[in-house]
Design brief:
- It contains 13 helices and 18 strands.
- By secondary structure, the protein is of the alpha/beta class.
- The chain folds into two domains: 163 residues, Rossmann fold (3-Layer(aba) Sandwich), CATH 3.40.50.720; 151 residues, Dihydrodipicolinate Reductase, domain 2, CATH 3.30.360.
- The strands form two sheets. Strands 7, 8, 9, 10, 11, 12, 13, 14, 15, 17 and 18 form an eleven-stranded mixed beta sheet that branches. Strands 3-2-1-4-5-6-16 form a seven-stranded parallel beta sheet, with helices on both faces.
- Helix 2 packs across helix 4 and helix 7 crosses helix 10.
- The protein starts with a strand and ends in a 6-residue tail after the last strand.
- The C terminus is likely disordered.
């Protein structure tokens, strides 16, 4: 049996739908409110149950007897490695759509996983797909044989923020959670093998290729980008959160200064993020973009991911990761999805889900001239 924690959430319900279509086996669907879980009448072998991820006994009962547990619950800074420990104690494999360095470090300190178990963290869109795409571009046939030297990523869109997403947004802007663990470093970039803080600045009313309209770009150096830059030996790596909505842009300018020391203050800030996203989205079509550019001295390749719903895309990435683990294509041990998964196979599987459209563009310098080649959507 495969269990999905957080099956009633925006990411969880899309992951469940993808898993049910793929028919990996019986499904156990868990949420704090099981009545909020949507079950299609055509699905078979589906068990719906109540589970509280913050209650050790409830979590242990949910994980018992499972082959694999997919965690779509959050916020990540609250749960940390709690779910992973319960899953491993139950003898199951574990996939987490979030779960970044603090989770990995805690598991390593505890000597987990053991006994041939598999743990895959950051198996969503960001982090996850955002780290897999540069590795895919490295494997492409570029004009010239020079190694990549620079990475630039723009990610964002116009969507309603869920409570879980809003909580993690607040965490990222504060550059630390309740216990002071860094989620990302604002205005920072990777340069010459180290993190440089205050190296970049927020750009308002900016134009970003492949994003409609004027936007604000907010530099944020995440752990995933730092790992990727070090692994690929990049001279520079930059990440920008893209904020299209006027209300969200205005709110984000003040969020880092808001008091969030108490739970009541944090919940108030989270409510403000949700309200701002709803106002920005009113009367407009939602969209999400992930634009990844990898370049060397004489070439540049850009992959553009277009989605109507980043939650659906994250659910699709999670479901594909589950299938990779079940089919034995992930070795035992602790992994980040971007490092453990095989880019060509995973991207081909994602295309089949219809959760996003992909396009790759190449620019190469030849004999002093510039050649631009474009592949049609889906031609990864």
């Amino acid at each position: 049996m495969i269990a999905v924690l957080g099956a009633s959430g925006e990411v969880g319900r899309h992951a469940v739908a993808a898993l049910a279509r793929d028919r990996p086996g019986p499904l156990r669907l868990g949420a704090r409110d099981p009545g909020a879980i949507t079950v299609n009448a055509t699905w078979r072998d589906v068990e719906v149950t109540a589970v509280d991820a913050t209650d050790p006994a409830s979590l242990a009962a949910f994980c018992r007897g499972q082959r694999l547990v997919l965690n779509c619950a959050g916020p990540s800074y609250l749960l940390k490695e709690t779910v992973a420990r319960a899953v491993l104690a139950a003898g199951a494999d574990y996939v987490d759509v979030l779960g970044d360095d603090p989770v990995a470090e805690a598991l390593v300190r505890a000597g987990a996983p053991a006994d041939g178990r598999r743990v895959v963290l950051s198996a969503g869109t960001v982090p996850g797909l955002s780290g897999l795409l540069p590795r895919h571009l490295v494997g492409q046939d570029t004009a010239g044989s020079t190694a990549p030297t620079a990475l630039t990523v723009h990610a964002g869109g116009l969507e309603r923020a869920t409570r879980t997403v809003a909580a993690d947004i607040l965490l990222s802007l504060r550059a630390g959670g309740p216990d002071g663990e860094p989620y990302g470093h604002a205005l920072a970039m990777w340069r010459r093998g180290r993190r440089e803080t205050r190296a970049l600045r927020v750009e308002e009313d900016a134009e970003v290729p492949f994003f409609p309209g004027r936007v604000t770009t907010q530099p944020l150096l995440t752990a995933e980008v730092q790992r990727l830059a070090a692994a690929l030996g990049l001279a520079e790596a930059r990440w920008y959160n893209v904020l299209p909505g006027a209300r969200i842009r205005a709110l984000f300018a003040t969020l880092p200064t808001l008091p969030v020391e108490t739970d009541e203050q944090r919940q108030e800030a989270i409510d403000r993020i949700i309200r701002a996203s709803e106002i920005d989205l009113a009367g407009r079509a939602p969209y999400y973009r992930l634009v990844v550019e990898l370049s060397g001295p004489e070439w540049s390749r850009t992959v553009v991911v277009r989605a109507d719903d980043s939650y659906r895309l994250t659910g699709a990435v999670a479901a594909v990761t589950v299938r990779e683990v079940l089919d034995g294509r992930v070795a035992p041990g602790l992994h980040f999805a971007a490092q453990a998964l095989r880019p060509p196979e995973v991207l081909a599987a994602l295309e089949k889900t219809g959760a996003a459209e992909f396009a790759v563009f190449t620019t190469a310098a030849q004999d002093g001239a510039t050649r631009v080649g474009a592949f049609e959507d889906g031609a990864l």
